[in-house]
Request: fold
Amino acid sequence: MIRGSCLCGGVRFEIDRAIGPFELCHCTRCQKVSGSGYLTWLTVRREDFRYLQGADLVKTYERPVSESPPPYNTSFCGICGSQMPDPAKNEQKFEIPAGALDDDPLIRPDKHIYTEFKARWESITDGLPQMTRSDIQASRDPSS
Reply:
């Protein structure tokens, strides 16, 4: 079991395992949400995730589509503001903020994404692959 929680402890959850990818997202939306240079997201299967308490405290902000789909949303504890998972969508897999984990997820970051938007003051020096928006789109295009 891998446990997670918010800063105030009002929301607690657990996952059986993290499956990846484990991405460091440098898009401007993630910068604004985190107040940092990037957000860390890792993927889990819906069947492996459970809220233990405080699911009713989780709020979601959905930003209108400004350029092109997909829309952007972020979920957080309504009391302390900590980033929280959003399993509300009807998808088999979803991303959770790695910073909300209390335990080691047993996987490590595997790439930086949307690196063309990285903060000007930030340097990426860890050697992980760096993907731009067009790299990501090409990797997801079934005709590639």
Q: What stands out?
A: The chain has two helices and ten strands. The helical segments are 28-34, 133-140.
